[in-house]
Design a protein that fits this description.
By secondary structure, this protein is an alpha+beta fold. The chain contains five helices and 14 strands. The strands form two sheets. It has an eight-stranded antiparallel sheet, with helices on one face. Strands 1, 2, 11, 12, 13 and 14 form a six-stranded mixed sheet that branches. The longest helix is centred in the first third of the chain and has 30 residues. The termini are far apart.
C-alpha cells in the first residue's frame, strides 16, 4: 500500500515539474519576442525624425551562435562552363590577382571570394518571368557546384531589373554571400560573393531585438536622407573577421533597407555600417 502511494505521489510530482518547465519555456519565449507596445514606441519615435516603416519586423530575437567560415577555392573550369559554355573563342588571362575569361560578348572574372560576369543576350528578355527563368537557371548551376543560394527579391527601376539571391544557413540569409543580377535590355551584369559556411563555433549569445537594431542605425539613415522609409528589416548572418587572429565568422546581423540602401547592424553589439 505504501509503495502504491509513493508511486502515485511521484507521478504527481513529475506532472507538476513538467508543467513548471512548460510555463518556464513559454515565459522565456515571450521574453525574446518583440511585442506590439515596443513596435508602437519605435514607430512613434522614428516618425518624429521623418522616417516611416512599411512591412513587419522580425519578432523573435532568441540567442544565436556564430558560425565558422572558410575561404573557398573556385574551380575555374566549372565557372567557365556555368557562364560561358555557349561562348566560342574564350581566352583566359591572369591579371592583378584575378583570373579573367573573355569572349566577344562576355567577360568573367574571379578574384578572392568574388565572381563577376557581364554579357549581352542578343535576343534579350520578353518578360519578368523570362528574366527569372534565366537567373534561376544560373543559380541552379552554381548550387550544383557550391553554395545554397535562394531567391530573395526582384526590383524594377525604370527599364532595369535587380534580382538578388542569398546563401541560406539555418533558415536565415547570409547577407555577405549574395548573388546579384542587374539586367537592362540585352545587358546582364552579375556579381557573387561566397565563403564556405561551416558549423556553429560557440554557445548561443543574446542578440539585439529588431527595434534596438533600428535605433542603432536611425542616425545614419537621417544623415543620408531627410525623410525616408524603412522598407525591409531582416535577421540573418554577415561574415566578418575577428580583430585578434583574423579568423572569419558568420555573425548574427540585421539588414535594414531604407531609401534603396542597405544598412547592416551587428546583432551582438549594435554596431552598424
Amino acid at each position: 500500500m505504501e509503495w502504491s502511494r509513493a508511486k502515485k505521489y511521484t507521478v504527481i510530482a513529475l506532472i507538476i515539474l513538467n508543467l513548471f518547465l512548460l510555463c518556464l519555456n513559454v515565459y522565456k519565449g515571450l521574453d525574446t519576442r518583440l511585442g506590439y507596445e515596443r513596435i508602437n514606441d519605435l514607430t512613434a519615435l522614428i516618425n518624429l525624425k521623418g522616417i516611416t516603416i512599411t512591412g513587419s519586423l522580425p519578432k523573435n530575437y532568441k540567442p544565436m551562435a556564430e558560425i565558422a567560415v572558410s575561404d573557398y577555392n573556385f574551380d575555374f573550369v566549372k565557372l567557365q562552363n556555368i557562364f560561358m559554355s555557349e561562348e566560342t573563342d574564350v581566352k583566359r588571362t591572369d591579371e592583378y590577382n584575378s583570373v579573367v575569361f573573355m569572349s566577344e560578348n562576355s567577360r568573367l572574372s574571379v578574384r578572392g571570394s568574388g565572381v563577376n560576369f557581364t554579357t549581352v543576350k542578343k535576343n534579350g528578355f520578353s518578360s519578368e518571368s523570362d528574366i527569372r527563368a534565366y537567373t534561376d537557371e544560373v543559380i541552379k548551376k552554381i548550387n550544383s557546384d557550391f553554395g545554397n543560394y535562394k531567391f530573395h527579391s526582384i526590383e524594377k527601376s525604370n527599364d532595369s531589373y535587380t534580382i538578388r539571391y542569398y546563401e541560406r544557413c539555418k533558415g536565415k540569409n547570409v547577407f555577405s554571400n549574395f548573388a546579384d543580377f542587374i539586367i537592362k535590355g540585352e545587358n546582364v551584369a552579375f556579381a557573387l560573393n561566397y565563403v564556405k559556411i561551416g558549423n556553429e563555433i560557440n554557445e548561443s549569445k543574446n542578440i539585439y531585438a529588431a527595434d534596438e537594431a533600428i535605433y542603432s542605425v536611425i542616425d545614419e539613415i537621417k544623415e543620408d536622407m531627410e525623410k525616408g522609409t524603412i522598407t525591409n528589416v531582416e535577421l540573418g548572418y554577415y561574415v566578418i573577421s575577428s580583430s585578434a587572429g583574423g579568423e572569419k565568422y558568420a555573425t548574427p546581423f540585421y539588414i535594414v533597407k531604407a531609401g534603396g540602401k542597405d544598412y547592416y547592424v551587428n546583432a551582438y553589439t549594435g554596431e552598424c555600417f
